[in-house]
Amino acid sequence: MQDHSFEGQVTIHIESPDLTVAPGSSVTIPLLLHNLSGSDGTFELAVRGIPSTWVTVPSPVVRLAADEQREVPLIIQPPLPPQGRAGRHQLIVRVTNQGTPQQAAEASCTLTVAALEVPGRIGLLLAATEFPVSPGESVAIPLTLFNQGLEGDIVNLAVEGIPSSWVSASAASIRLSPGQQQEVTLTIQPSRSGEGGAGRHPFRILATSQAAPGQVAAADCVLTIATFTQFNTELRPQRIEAGEPARVVVENQGNIQQAFTVTWQSPDDGLEFEPAPSQELRIAPGDVAMAEFRVKPRSRPLLGGERVWPFTARVQAADGARRNLSGEVVGQALIPSSILTVVLVAILVVAAIAVLLAVLGGSPEGGAPPEQPVATATQEVEQPAPTEPAPEQPTEPPPEQPTEPPAEPPTEPPPEQPTESPPEPAPTEPPAEEPPPAEQLPAEPGEGGLPCIPAAAGLILAPLLVAGKKDRRER
Known about the structure:
Blueprint: E1 10-14, E2 18-21, E3 27-35, E4 41-48, E5 55-56, E6 61-64, E7 69-76, E8 87-97, E9 104-113, E10 116-118, E11 122-126, E12 130-133, E13 139-147, E14 153-160, E15 167-169, E16 173-176, E17 181-188, E18 199-209, E19 216-225, E20 231-236, E21 239-241, E22 245-252, E23 258-265, E24 271-274, E25 278-283, E26 288-297, E27 303-304, E28 306-317, E29 322-332, E30 335-336, H1 337-360, H2 371-382, H3 384-387, H4 389-395, H5 397-403, H6 413-420, H7 429-433, H8 437-440, H9 445-448, H10 452-474
Helix pairs in contact: 1-10
């Protein structure tokens, strides 16, 4: 506190030499004015050392009677950060007689503007101790360091309690002369993720002296991170085989726990989802959860190939944000076209075998069809030969019998001719009376070639049947 007067005409008095005020707050300084002159006077007040916008007085002009004392309140109110900075200011109040301007008096004090003051060899002033910030944005923390030692020093800054990747400083090391003060700005920028989480996060600012490492100024502060919601979704896989499992993956990229609702829908309700077409997931910040489901068509076509059914998976957060994921379901007809091809080929093969059997079945003698017609033709020509002389022989003897009854030689030759003729047709008659060619085929398998046909048919049908079974397994 300092009091000054001019020729004993007027004095001004401040009770405390040191005052402290936090930015955004106010402090009232009572000023005691005394008119020492023998006459009335009008006195004007003025404040120096701080911005005039911080100062409020009921009236800058005060009228005092002779020898009158009066207390005048002086209100100091620094603004909030970032306009209001921490620091120490030399406050000077001057009072002047308007009638005689040369008559004036002054009083001064030290005004400390800070929400937190840390005394010591290395002093530290903060304009605020609580700092709100949104993830992804930054907040500036101005602080004032001063050297209260008797020699120069270097001050190192550090921050504890929050990730160091969030913090940057205008200067990590500050050189200070004795009695010097300097302002430094720390910048904190939380990442836009669930790493820190929403809410209050205590942290500490440390200022350490290099000249005296044991001298550390510590300021406890609070960083309040605002909430935000953000999520990412993915459908795995996007193209799903009917009846196979699939998943909707949800990642909570916000900094608070969120509830998500997962639903599925298809055009015209043509698909069936299992389990129920709605699931709820509660996911902590930074975590991932999955909703597993199966989907299949309610009805499939009877014939045809591969068919695709579209569907949509919707993920909706509790705050109303939503994402739509498009997917496809692939399915086969009840009778796939590949099976139809196999069946048609099998039918054609069977038909071809039937035609071959019908063609080969028309020659029952196997390898001897051309010889039989010749043999039968010769039999038909040779048989009449012995029969024609037979009627001629009885016609000639009658005229001879009456004339020569005792003659027997003419009658002997006719019996000899019939005896010779039977041996000739004997070899030809048995082939005509033999069993049909169907009975001869098994006796000579190498000549007709018919037993090879079923084996060939089996070689053709076997791959087709295997392909049909494989297709059924794939379905």
